[in-house]
Design goal:
22% strand, 8 strands
């Protein structure tokens, strides 16, 4: 799973260069999660998950608080969660998750992004069958054996536990995200370098240099769209 972890690292690194944009996306995601349930993460698992993710991106407290207060105040903005699936250069596969208050605008923007960058939109299910929904949790300061022992003692299952670049990565079923995290917290781990529910490709592919350059532009354009929250793909971006 090393290359999959590389893709997550690359994704986080690219977003670190666009802090204002990623903060805005988190603000929208926090607002939607808080509005759909209780604005209290202890009773709203969706909100709790978003807030855990936000910590790993160092989203400022005032942005979190503002989004939750907006939801408490009965904000009248309504967003739809829509997933798009498509193909990039050389048959690469891309999944785009959006939160939108204007479905027509978002569909046109996503379609144009693919079309102008060597790709095309597919139908629902044309790509996602080649990906697995996965909880990915990363911790530092522990060995893979340490983490395995913690999870075994808590009777928590994981798909895989790997130590890569000084970070221990736990791959688990999506419904085990909070279970894994709680077991690690009970063992004294408070900080997580990664806390994601993601779509991991079953098989990553490598692209020739010219196609990879075009592919990376496609991903950048998609991630720049206001309504796009997450972009997943099956290309090994390397180090």
């Amino acid at each position: 799973m090393g290359r999959k972890w590389n893709n997550i690292k690359e994704k986080k690194a690219s977003k670190d260069k666009q802090t204002s944009r990623i903060y805005a996306k988190f603000g929208r995601e926090i607002y939607v999660a808080a509005k759909q349930g209780e604005p209290d993460p202890e009773s709203n698992q969706s909100l709790k998950f978003v807030l855990e993710r936000a910590k790993t991106y160092s989203v400022p407290k005032h942005i979190v608080d503002r989004a939750i207060e907006k939801a408490k105040g009965g904000g009248d903005e309504n967003f739809d969660e829509i997933r798009y699936e498509g193909f990039g250069p050389n048959g690469s596969m891309v999944i785009v998750d959006t939160l939108t208050n204007n479905v027509n605008r978002t569909a046109a923007d996503v379609r144009a992004s693919f079309g102008k960058n060597g790709g095309n939109l597919g139908v629902n299910g044309s790509v996602s069958y080649m990906f697995d929904a996965t909880a990915v949790i990363g911790v530092e300061g522990k060995s893979a054996d340490d983490v395995l022992e913690i999870l075994m003692e808590a009777d928590v299952d994981a798909r895989d536990i790997l130590e890569e670049d000084g970070v221990v990565i736990v791959y688990a079923e999506p419904d085990q995200f909070h279970v894994v995290q709680e077991a690690l917290k009970q063992a004294g781990i408070e900080e997580f370098s990664v806390a994601e529910l993601t779509m991991l490709a079953q098989n990553d592919i490598e692209l020739p240099a010219d196609a990879q350059e075009q592919f990376e532009k496609l991903i950048d354009v998609l991630e720049d769209l206001e309504d796009v929250q997450q972009v997943y793909h099956n290309v090994d971006l390397g180090e």
